[in-house]
Amino acid sequence: GAVVSQHPSWVICKSGTSVKIECRSLDFQATTMFWYRQFPKQSLMLMATSNEGSKATYEQGVEKDKFLINHASLTLSTLTVTSAHPEDSSFYICSARTGTGIGEQYFGPGTRLTVT
Amino acid sequence: AQSVTQLDSQVPVFEEAPVELRCNYSSSVSVYLFWYVQYPNQGLQLLLKYLSGSTLVESINGFEAEFNKSQTSFHLRKPSVHISDTAEYFCAVISNNAGNMLTFGGGTRLMVKP
């Protein structure tokens, strides 16, 4: 089946630094990738949608200058949390989909970010 | 606009007992419905989905869900749960007028007790 990986699986960083999270589709080409944020015991909140080769579309309330998303190829999208603060600590999950129609999204295992 | 409501945030149940996790959606157009399972500190895994055809869909590990258009529901059921079924379950919907975007419910934590 379709596999999506994320790296790193967990990261601890100091306040004010930037962190990059990678999301890769291992055995399929992902025309669309999604980034979600999940707080403890809560549901997933969509942060942004990215299509290969174009700028990401951010959901309302998500700061695009803080959460930089790059979808440089059909198998790789990156999320960079810039100038991280403790309130950015969360579980970040990416998913990938082929095509733009009704299609299954394949989810990565998530990245736990802790900002100290 | 589409939305998903999972009525129970937690469902405790004893091992080998039946369970139903409730999911209701709101959408004015055709929908596609999904159940995902999330184990601790992991991403989401697709459990089952309804796209079209038979309204009763099944997973390989004994779960089933029935799409009920009149009641706008997609409840998840299992006749006999195992300890290993303990996880967070998310119902999600895609509707044609929402840009093919997944909208998740708030999740239901299934806690299976021995």
Which characteristics define this entry?
heterodimer, A: 116 residues, mainly beta, seven-stranded mixed beta sheet, four-stranded antiparallel beta sheet, 11 strands, 0% helix, B: 114 residues, globular
Brief account:
With 116 residues, chain A is an all-beta fold. In chain A, 0% of the residues lie in helices and 52% in strands. The termini of chain A are far apart.
What do you see in this structure?
The complex is a heterodimer of chains A (116) and B (114). By secondary structure, chain A is mostly beta strands. Helix content of chain A is 0%, strand content 52%. In chain A, strands 2, 4, 5, 6, 9, 10 and 11 form a seven-stranded mixed sheet that branches. The N and C termini of chain B lie far apart (41 Å). Chain B is 0% helix and 53% strand. In chain B, strands 2, 5, 6, 10, 11 and 12 form a six-stranded mixed sheet that branches. In chain B, strands 3-9-8-7 form a four-stranded antiparallel sheet, with no helix packed on it. A two-stranded antiparallel ribbon of chain B has the order 1-4. The interface between A and B is medium-sized, with 24 and 21 residues.
Straight-line N-to-C gap of chain A:
37 Å
Gross morphology of chain A is: globular
Radius of gyration of chain A: 13 Å
Q: Count interface residues per chain for the largest interface.
A: A-B, 24 and 21 residues
Shape designation of chain B: globular
The low-confidence parts of chain A are: none
* SSE order of chain A, one letter for each helix or strand: EEEEEEEEEEE
Number of DSSP-assigned strands of chain A: 11
User: Which strand-content bin applies to the residues of chain A?
Assistant: over 45%
Discrete helix count of chain B:
0
Low-confidence stretches of chain B: none
